[in-house]
Design goal:
It is built from one helix and 17 strands. It is mostly beta strands.
Length: 271
């Protein structure tokens, strides 16, 4: 019972955080058509208090010298942001005494519209709207190739599961194990910034019964500490199939178990 309470508390923490899932990922974003591996411009997005956004633009002046502007505002409906870009001057220079910067000028409004937490468009002063997305500097896909002990939550139940991902190029295999069933799905892996998704087809077996169907695996996120979150749902919500594996998954990376359906053994954490 105590273990269930711990898992439930752990899951509720993630559920409370997932309320902001429609908001943009924090970090450095780049204009998609300009990303070529060479020094360019970017937009650092930070969120505080849920809807407050601080956007810092790093770019160039007409003479080629580098500059930065900042905009601060509130997200509207979890997907829209508009605020003035402001240029500053007279701040502290490297190796010099501290000085308080001041506003130099207001450049004009910047507008951002987000389709997902990792994709959207940006309209900068004097330009047309351009697609932009987070810049990724590490192989986040490598984090997928692990096993996980997770808690699955949906509207009717909560269960402990084991998960195992295996990826190769843009292919993914997703295995799910529980005390009374095992599933294995195969699909194409789609990368969305720091998250992944897949529409995968496979089978689930429960005793002598075997079912064949497809599921949507979305918002697959694994951070540098091995913490996982993911949602699983039906391709057609009007025709649900085996809703027992649907829901929100929250868990941690573990060393692979001998049997994926073994949810009673206490696993060792990943190294």
């Amino acid at each position: 019972m105590q273990a269930v309470k711990i898992w439930a508390s752990y899951a509720m923490f993630f559920v409370s955080c997932s309320a902001f899932a429609a908001l943009p990922q924090t970090g450095m974003w780049g204009v998609d058509s300009e990303v070529n591996g060479k020094p360019g411009r970017g937009i650092q997005i930070d969120r505080q208090g849920g809807n407050t956004v601080i956007a810092s633009y790093y770019g160039y002046r007409d003479d080629g010298s580098a500059t930065f502007y900042q905009a601060v505002g509130i997200m509207e409906d979890g997907k829209s942001f508009t605020a003035d870009l402001v240029e500053y001057k007279n701040g502290t220079a490297l190796g010099k005494d501290a000085k308080t910067g001041e506003v130099s000028r207001v450049i004009g409004p910047v507008s951002m519209e987000f389709d997902t937490p990792s994709s959207g468009s940006i309209l900068l002063p004097g330009e047309t709207a351009k697609r932009f997305s987070p810049l990724i500097y590490e192989d986040t896909q490598a984090r997928l190739n692990n096993s996980f002990r997770v808690l699955r939550l949906n509207e009717t139940s909560q269960n402990i599961n084991n998960l195992q991902f295996s990826t190769k190029s843009d292919d993914i295999t997703i295995s799910i194990g529980a005390e009374n069933y095992t599933c294995k799905f195969y699909g194409k892996l789609v990368t969305n910034g720091l998250t992944f998704e897949s529409i995968a087809s496979g089978t689930c077996s429960s005793g002598p019964s075997i079912s064949v169907y497809s599921k949507k695996f979305e918002e697959i996120t694994i951070d540098e500490k091995g913490t996982l979150s993911m949602s699983v749902s039906d391709i057609d919500p009007k025709n649900p199939i085996n809703i027992a594996i649907n829901g929100q998954y929250f868990g941690r990376c573990i060393k692979a178990l001998a049997n994926i359906d073994d949810t009673t053994t206490i696993p060792s954490p990943c190294d």
